[in-house]
Amino acid sequence: MPELPEVETIARQLRARGVEGRKILSVKVNWARTVEPLSVASFSRQVRGTTIDEISRVGKWMMFLLSSGKTIMIHLRMAGGFSMEPGQHDRLVFKLSDGPTLHYRDTRKFGRWKLVDDPQEILDKLGPDALTRQFSPTYFREAMRKRHRMIKPLILDQSIVAGLGNIYVDEALWEAKIHPERRSDSLDDAELSTLFKAIKHVLAIGVKNRGTSLGDGKTNYRDVEGEAGGHREKVKAYGRSGKPCVRCGTFLEKIVVAQRGTTFCPVCQSGFDQ
DNA sequence: GAAGACCTGCTA
DNA sequence: TAGCAGGTCTTC
User: Which among A66, A122, A235, A243 could bridge A50 via Cys, Cβ 3.0 to 4.6 Å?
Assistant: First the structure.
């Protein structure tokens, strides 16, 4: 579930809740495979007693910098999230100094926590974070031009640009009026420029709205305060198949692209390549 | 590229 | 009951 805006929202709220600067008094791991590649025992032993000095984020990764010099790299995958209250799907729990308890919950158990000496080992495999200056128009144009892949799977590829997932990719392509199956090297300068701006825009708006939640169920994304993301009402494409395009009124269609459900407007995002 | 694996829970 | 879900990895 979480893409860049959701992870950023969670990181900000954990800071606002005062998690930074607190000592980890106890560690409870309820789902052993959450922790990788260490055993639960060695993870717990190395983390207990350290202080969370800083919380940061790159792409969809969240990082807890520990006073020991090590870093916990957290990937929420499809369904990970945090709460300061206990819940049914808590997979890992930190008791912190001065009272609060941090609950990591993850219904689908796909999320992973890695204790590493150097975060660069993982970050080196990522392209630039989509909201940083390193993700620039020039970088984007060249990355698209030198490949001959469908545009949707290409911008979903975290080694090209870090942070986009299925929701925001569909939103950016809709905003830029580009068909998800267009070949990346068939896009002209104007289209690439529009798409670049659309990517930055949909992510920035997503952050501003504290992320996107679909439906109302408890399976969906919630922020640290238990609230649904406010971006749900703002979504123009994702999850709106069969509904009218808010730009032209045509019914949006759903197809599968690179094994991912994909919603687009067959008129606004018409598909010819070359 | 595609398909399967990893998981649970909601919806049709 | 089948199908699908915000992600990524491995193996064709």
Answer: A66
pTM: 0.96
Would you please indicate which residues of A are annotated as catalytic (active-site) residues? Answer: 2-3, 60, 260
Footprint of strand C on the protein (CB under 7 A): A 1-3, 6, 59-60, 75, 77-78, 108, 110, 156, 158, 165-167, 211-215, 219-221, 229, 259-261
Instruction: Find the nucleotide nearest A149 (Cα to C1′).
Output: B1
Residues of CATH 1.10.8.50 domain(s) within chain A?
137-264
Segments of chain A assigned to CATH 3.20.190.10: 4-123
Domain A137-264 class in CATH: mainly alpha
Determine how β-strand A260-264 pairs with β-strand A80-83.
Answer: unpaired
Distance CA A210, CA A217 (A): 18
**Tens-place pLDDT, residues A52-75:** 999 999 999 999 999 999 999 999
* pLDDT level of residue A217 (50, 70, 90 thresholds): very low
**A215 Cβ within 7 A of any nucleic strand B atom:** yes
- Contact of A142 with A184, CB cutoff 8 Å: no
Give me the CA A113–C1' C10 separation in Å, rounded: 20
